[in-house]
Each structure stands twice: as C-alpha cells, then as structure tokens.
Amino acid sequence: MSCPVTGRATDSLSSGSTGAEPIVLDPLVRDREGEIARLRESGPITRIDLLGAVAFSVTDHAEARQLLTDPRLVKDINRWNAWRDRRITREWPLIGMIDAGRSMFTVDGAEHRRLRAMTAQAVTPRRVEGMRPAIERITADLLDRVAELGADGSPVELKETFALPLPMKVVSELMGVDAKDHPRLHELYDAFFSMLTPQEERLAVIEEMDVFYTRVVAEKKAAPGDDLTSALILADEGGEPLTDEEVIGNLKAMVAAGHETTISLILHAVRALLDNPDQLALVLSGEVGWEAVIEETLRWASPSTHLLMRFATEDIEVAGTVIPEGEGVVMSYAAIGRDPAQHGEDADRFDITRTLPIRHMAFGHGPHICPGAALSRLEAAIALPALFERFPRMALAVPNEEIRNMPVMTQNDLAALPILIDAADR
C-alpha cells in the first residue's frame, strides 16, 4: 500500500473483528466535520486506516472511559503486532506519536506512576498559578501587536500574531528556554505534526529535538533555575530521580501537548463565538462566564482529534466488538466529544449555555490524563477575555466556511484565523 502523503510503501495491518472496511482518514484534513460524522455513524468501536496502519477507533464517551482505565491496554509499542512483524517501521509518518522515547506518556503501571509522581512534583498547582503574571504580560504585549497590525483596517492573522506565540512563550518560559530558541522550536513542532513533511525530514526533526532538549537539560543541570526543567531534574520524591532520557522525554511531550492544545482552544473559541454572535453577546454581557466558553470549546472542538495509540495485551470485548491481542486502539476525541448519549442530541452544536459542568474528556481520562490541562485552561481564561475586551467589535475577516485545517491528523489545528479587530458592521 502506498502512503497518500509521502508516497512510500506501507503494509496494511490485518486487524479486527468488524466486517466493514476501515474508514480511511484524510491526512490533509479537508473535511474534519464529515469525518467525525462518519466515525460516529460507524459505531462506538470502528476500524480506521491511518496512512496504511489499521487500528480500532473509539468514538463513544462511555466506551472511552472504560478503555482508558483498562490495564489490558498499554502504551508499549512492542505489544503492537504490526511493529513486531515489521509491517510498520520508522518510515511510517505517525511513528513519532508512538515511539517517542521514555516518558510518562509511553509507559504504564508502576513506572508510569513513578514518572508521573516526579512530574507532579515539578508541575505543581502553585507553579502553574505562579505563571499568571507572565501570561498576563505576554497577552498584553501580543494584543498591542495585534492592535498595531489591524489599526488601518487590514485583516490580522490571529493564529500567527496571538494564539500561537502566547502558549509557546508561556511554556518556554515555564521550562526555562531562551526566547531566541522559540522560533526554531515552533518550526520543529510544526514539521513534526504536519503530514506534508517528508518522513526523512521528520526523522531529522525528531533527532534535532533530541539534541535541543539534551542541551537544555545539560545547561539546567549545570545551573538550575526556577523553571520546570530544573524541577524535573531535581525531583526525587516517589522513587529514583528521573534519568536524562526521562526528563527529555517528558519535556518534549509536555511542550508539544501544552502549546498545541492552547493554540487550538483559543482559535476555536474565537471562531465559534464570532460565528455565533448571540452567544458572544451572552459572554460580553456577563450572563455566561468564560469557563463555559472554555469547556464547551474543549468538548465541541477537542484539541486532540485522534490520540495515538494503545495496544491490547489480550483480546478485549467492548460494545459487542472484540479488539484482538496486539492490535492498536485510538481514542478519537473529536468524535467522543460529539457523543449524543453524553451531551444530548444537539451534541454537534456549539452551545455555551449547556449545563455545567460539561463532562468532556478533551484532556483524557484515567492514569494518562493530560498533566498540562490546568495551564491550558489558565492561559485561555486570561487570553480570551483580554482579547474580546480589547477588540469588542472583532469579526471574522473571511466567511467561516473558508477557514481550513492544517494537514495534521492527530491535532485540531487551524491553518489560519484572519480577523478584523474593528468591523464596520458590528
């Protein structure tokens, strides 16, 4: 089988007990809404084709909750039949999402608890809350730049000028990365996620990331500071201190998850509010709070579209489907967030008046729940009201239907969000 993006040959996985042909996911993400609908229509557990690798996709909230706490599903890539049989190799474009080095995101059981305890010791609620002044400062500076660019009535690209640099600056400041490294770090992550990146280049990007984080860790070991990297290096509660490999693995994954999640959350909240002026009016009047906007955006436009991947250590029956031992399981959070059994028959509709709390799973569930959720929520809770307070007459600069997704299969990433900061018709 030929990979539709890279053109390289990849072998199909023989997988599954469902009779239907797997749904082939579009690597260019040209119709995300339609793809979500097709996944949901296929049932709570369905097969998908990820650039030649067939896996089971979980699309319902209840089944996802069950499987995310099932110890028979593990992160160890060596339990994957296709990897053991070499039907999938490092030439597969999504391999970096699974074979990502040793970190709390790639191990299970006692080792996962140890690594997560060390990270929890470093990413404390106090450390997250301590970032508030920095987030407010960065937000204000970026909004000044947005105002400058849009002062003559020209459209301003909100992703490039605000939604992207904000979390990148915040997470880099949190981990103690020099500001001069921010542009290259973003370029690396962009190339890593994009399905347009040739695999040879992607593997080189992964290697450059390893070199970058190795240097950061070495510098912090020599001169620790008040930052996340130093805290991870010095963490010693709950077992042996983290190795350099484990610190590097945790940092790589946390920066990826931290800034990508917040970019998506900010952009989709802005897009949805500007496309629903009646709901925006409720927020601006104070009738509905920003917490509702944030949680509804996380549910309706989950930052993670498909979370790769767990592997069955034995046959697992769920919702009338058997997931055979050695097969991969993907949590399709975009579909899970639209589950009508959990969120009502209007689950496809953005509605900030839903009864709180909105019990979504945008940040996961169970042992591997995202450790950066609190920081992402804090950034959005500061950035969104500041943005709309500064530009209350803001509007989309293009019709909503013209807004496109980035060619990223795993993340819900918009290519751009052009706005007018003072629309004449508002």
TrEMBL record:
Organism of provenance: Streptomyces alkaliphilus
Descriptive protein name: Cytochrome P450
Gene Ontology MF: a single term: iron ion binding
Alphabetical list of Pfam families matching this protein: p450 (PF00067)
Keywords, in A-Z order: Heme, Iron, Metal-binding, Monooxygenase, Oxidoreductase
Similarity comment: family membership: Belongs to the cytochrome P450 family.
Source species, domain of life: Bacteria
